[in-house]
Amino acid sequence: MMDIIPKEHARDSLLGRALFFGAILILLATLGVGLVFTSLASEAEKRGADLERQLTAITTPEERALEQDVLRAKRKTDDFSSLLSQRKNLLGAFRVLEDAVHPQVIFTSVDVRAADRTVQVSGRAAGFIPLEQQLQIFKTHEDISAIEISSFSLQENGTVEFAAVITLPARIFSSL
Q1: How do residues 110-129 score in pLDDT, each as one tens digit?
Q2: What is the pLDDT of residue 9?
Q3: Which of 2, 88, 133, 137 has the smallest CB count inside 10 Å?
Q4: What pLDDT does residue 148 have?
């Protein structure tokens, strides 16, 4: 059907068209700049990684020697730490002997063996009576499990030389 009343066609204004195309151009330019910056950033990152790889690959003989020295020192300290943690505290055994010694008895040698919880002592007593008193002190001491005289002999000057093995409880040999 035909329109009887002519209608005015809407005219596109020149300013509207210019703004529309200008906005599209700005959008395209922004996208293009974004892509360029992304490409440049990834390229710079690759270059930085390559340079870092090259720097780490270049080590002087002096640096390698220093690194070996540091690693050797680290191994030694690790070994020392391991040994120290396994070492038993022998001071407890000497404290027990110090507490339990008779005034007329002298120990001439002491061999502490933490592995089998024993202390081998050699010594000299002023006579048989002080030696017997020393044995009684050992037998009644709470930190001594057992005492065994392995040898004794009377000397010309009246002293008695002896050797004994003393067994101590495990708690005496606590770790350091």
Answers
A1: 998 888 889 999 999 999 99
A2: 65
A3: 2
A4: 93
122 neighbors 161 (Cβ within 8 angstroms): yes
Which tokens hold the place of 72?
A: 């050797």
The domain tally of the chain equals: 2
The segments of the chain whose pLDDT lies below 70 read 1-3, 6-7, 9-12, 83-88, 175-176
Is the separation of the CB atoms in 136 and 112 below 8 Å? no
Q: Are residues 162 and 98 in the same domain?
A: yes
Q: DSSP E strands: which ranges in the chain?
A: 105-113, 118-125, 146-154, 160-167
Long-range contacts of 140-145 (CB under 8 A, 24+ apart): 141/96, 141/99, 141/100, 143/96, 143/99, 143/100, 143/168, 143/169, 143/172, 144/96, 144/100, 144/168, 145/117, 145/169
Residue 107's domain is classified under what CATH number? 3.30.1360.100
Establish if 15 belongs to a structural domain: no
Number of other CB atoms surrounding residue 20 within 10 Å? 11
At residue 3, the pLDDT reads: 65
Neighbours of 126 (CB within 10 A): 16
Is 0.70 surpassed by the pTM of this model?
no
Q: Which residues share a beta bridge with 153?
A: 161
- Domain span at residue 67? 29-85
Residue 117, domain member (yes or no): yes
